[in-house]
TrEMBL record:
Residues 156-404 form the Xaa-Pro dipeptidyl-peptidase-like domain. This is Alpha/beta-hydrolase. The lineage of its organism: Eukaryota, Fungi, Dikarya, Ascomycota, Pezizomycotina. The keyword Hydrolase applies. Keywords: Hydrolase. It comes from Aspergillus sclerotiicarbonarius (strain CBS 121057 / IBT 28362). One of its GO terms (molecular function) is hydrolase activity.
Length: 437
């Protein structure tokens, strides 16, 4: 879940957490992969070994090392008799899935590179092998959906349901969506395991612009995210093991903007969590470009020159973060035109009116060392009013990074305890920062 808006390499407080590369974007994504070790999506020594072999800033070096690791761990998994040793096979397949998933992470400047889809499919296959070996196997579902922003109108929302316990007892259920770059397989390790351990069901999903829908349906991001989320809620209504009075919706990273957007129209939710809060990716990019005249070119209608300048930034920059961000933006919006991407971005902004339309309690998190969306989380809290609860996750205890990467236990303690209290109608302060131990 790398930070979508990081436009300069020197914006990380290097004292926040130990850096695994002297390329700060590589360091951050390595931290992301390493953090999955907390819930068995990776292994520390495996990731640290890869980190030691990767040439900073070299995208092919990154690809080769994670491909090697994915192949090696996949081979170990495939050699295990899963009927006798299901735990061993499951754990290895989860890890190989992660390494396959992250191998092509920096290849998106060439959207037609066949390695992107090949490795993406391998990652999903290995995750499904692992999830089938859980004590309660995960269920894969393709949910029909429609949007006026989709050519032809119709598409599918890939989802995966994880039961918390055997049988059909009606249980609280959390819907969790991801953001600008991560897959919903990541979500299982990042926060899904923590939710299941609390006795609640989890359903993860992806929409247009996210890996599975991009790969299988060739669809980029759409602003009407309620048309992605509502089919998931519809599906939950058909299940006998879901307590529809206790369904919450959570979004991670750019999902912290997409999920409030959806909740402004979808009112069958008992709570919403933005991890972390973000109201306008467009405004963040605009601020990032403020030192240049690039946006002036667009505003003046010189779209060809705007495109040239964006491409020049992407291909000529020595900054990995900038190169990745621009490539990822065009990739996830499924366009080769920067001006097309820029024209579509404002529609994703969650304004005060939309936030006021959210009809349930909302948790807004923010990392103290996260420079992705400065000030936006607190602005969201003000716009939502009495239904909002804010928490600043502190750097001095390792939780200050974007989406609390690496401090998943602290995130779970605060977010899911807040949710339990909300469901139990416990009166809480609007700011938990100095309240939660």
């Amino acid at each position: 879940m790398p930070r979508e808006t990081k436009l300069a390499q020197d914006d990380i407080n290097s004292s926040a957490i130990f850096q695994l590369s002297n390329d700060t974007e590589f360091a951050f994504v390595l931290e992301t992969v390493l953090s999955l070790s907390n819930n068995r999506g990776a292994a520390t020594a495996e990731v640290l070994r890869a980190a030691s072999q990767i040439t900073p800033g070299d995208f092919e070096s990154w690809y080769n090392e994670f491909l090697y690791l994915g192949n090696a761990i996949h081979a170990k998994a495939a050699a295990i008799d899963s009927s006798r040793f299901p735990v061993s096979a499951r754990e290895a397949y989860f890890r190989s899935s992660t390494y396959y998933r992250y191998a092509p992470f920096f290849l998106h400047a060439n959207a037609s590179d066949p390695r992107i889809n090949t490795l993406g499919a391998l990652a999903v296959d290995d995750f499904n092998r692992a999830a089938a070996l859980l004590p309660l196997p995960a269920e894969n579902i393709d949910l029909p959906a429609s949007s006026p922003n989709i050519p032809g109108g119709d598409f599918y929302v890939p989802a995966r349901f994880f039961k918390a316990q055997q049988g059909n007892a009606k249980l609280p259920t959390i819907i969790v969506g991801t953001g600008y770059d991560a897959a919903h397989e990541d979500i299982y390790h990042e926060i899904g395991v923590e939710i299941l351990e609390r006795g609640w069901n989890v359903i993860t999903f992806e929409g247009p612009g996210q890996p599975t829908v991009l790969r299988d349906e060739n669809l980029g991001f759409i602003p009407d995210w309620w048309n992605v989320v509502s089919p998931v809620v519809d599906y939950l209504e058909t299940r006998p093991d879901v307590d529809m009075d206790h369904v919450a919706l959570a979004g991670v990273s750019f999902g912290g903007e997409l999920i409030p957007l959806a909740a402004s129209r979808e009112h069958r939710l008992s709570a919403v969590l933005a991890i972390d809060g973000m109201s306008s990716l467009y405004e963040l990019f605009e601020a990032g470009f403020s030192a240049t005249n690039i946006t002036d070119l667009y505003d003046d209608g010189d779209y060809a020159k705007f495109d040239e300048e964006i491409w020049a930034l992407e291909y000529d920059s020595s900054e990995t973060s900038l190169r990745w961000m621009l490539a990822q933006s065009l990739f996830t919006f499924n366009t080769d035109s920067p001006s097309d991407w820029w024209s579509r971005l404002p529609a994703f902004t969650v304004n005060a009116t939309m936030l006021a339309n959210i009809s349930c309690p909302v948790f807004i998190g923010e990392g103290e060392n996260d420079s992705s969306a400065p000030g936006q989380a607190e602005e969201m809290v003000k716009a939502i009013g009495k239904n909002a609860t804010y928490n600043l996750f502190r750097t001095d205890v390792g939780a200050g990074e974007h989406c609390q990467i690496g401090a998943e236990a602290q995130l779970a303690q605060v977010a899911w305890d807040w949710l339990a209290d909300t469901w139990d109608h416990v009166r809480l302060p609007t700011n938990l920062t100095n309240v939660v131990a």
